[in-house]
Amino acid sequence: MGKASRQDGPDPVSSIVVPVFGSTVSLPILAERLRRVFENDVGEPYEIIFVDDDSPDPETWPILLRLAESDPAVRAVRLTRNFGQSAAVLCGIGLARGAYLIGMDDDLQHAPEEIPKLIAERHHDVVFARFRKRRHPLSKRLTGRIKSYFDWMILGKPLHLQSSSFFLMRRAVARGVLAVRTPFPLLTPLVYHATRDVVNVEVEHRARAHGKSRYTLARRLRLFSNLIINNSAFLLTVIGVLGTSLSAASLLLFLFYLGRRLFFGIGLSGWTSLMLAVLGIGGVLLFGVGVIGTYLVRIIQTSESRPSYVVRYDSARDGLLAASRSGLAAARIPAIQAAQQWMDLPRTEASAWGVGSGDLFGSENREDGPHGQDGADGPDVPAGREMRDDAQHHRDRQEAP
Fold it and tell me: What pTM was estimated for this model as a whole?
């Protein structure tokens, strides 16, 4: 039977890294399903690292703190701002202690029950999950195919291989990935920079049970620009090809008109060809200047050694007691109750979450309860009002300088 690995205990075999952004209800469900998989199916020590990428939902961080407090296998990490999914994954990889790193999303579209399939192929450096049928909108599937083509063209990734955020990686590859310092990290280029021993395992892609995807078209375009600019000289190569082609065309046009003048006495009939040449060459030159300027800005930002992420709080490093007393972990979170109803957990398991009648976390588990010192009883406060007060307190703390 697999055991949860405490921070002061033996190192886990597998570390599951979950970047979190905007999720609440799915988090305790995901943690419980991961526990069942590793205890019942895998049978190896494990740890779960949740990385809060500055989630806009004020309930996300209190839930993660509660998970870390109640489960020795869970580690909650919070970043100072939204650095992006790849940066959050790299943060978790950098903190992980396992020999194998497993990355997955927080929305339950990546089923924990599929992890044993990845583990079965862990003699390879990297194992990416390949989805039989993607449960994404058409626009996201189309942009994904375009990116896959550019991955092949720029990175040399075989077209038959599919990259995804559901993967398993060996520790040696993780060290190579972390060795690349860039403020614009992108996981797939980093992986193919470190190794070519990459395989796919076919798994099911589940429908999103809660919330909606926050990967807008603008966000996907920003990620695509990171691939094009930060991980290749693709645009510079395009400019070079265009410049060479225009130079050759200009030379041929010059020889053509010179020959007409010398051998046939025919001069230029108008300014149309001249204007077309000037506008075409000028447009390419301005485009080239813009591209070079973009590269220079990225080079300056990279030379400043800007970190890919900054950690605000780490439950394993900073401890849970201070966070609990701050009022964050004492918030009454309806998402926990919704998760318990969704999974239909037995009452004994629900009590492990502190979900009782009228009290989601249970006043007996609090350091300083909302009704007084050490959870002592006091005047009754309506649950809705208390939840609003806690949320307002959390927002005030975030807005404080």
Answer: 0.69
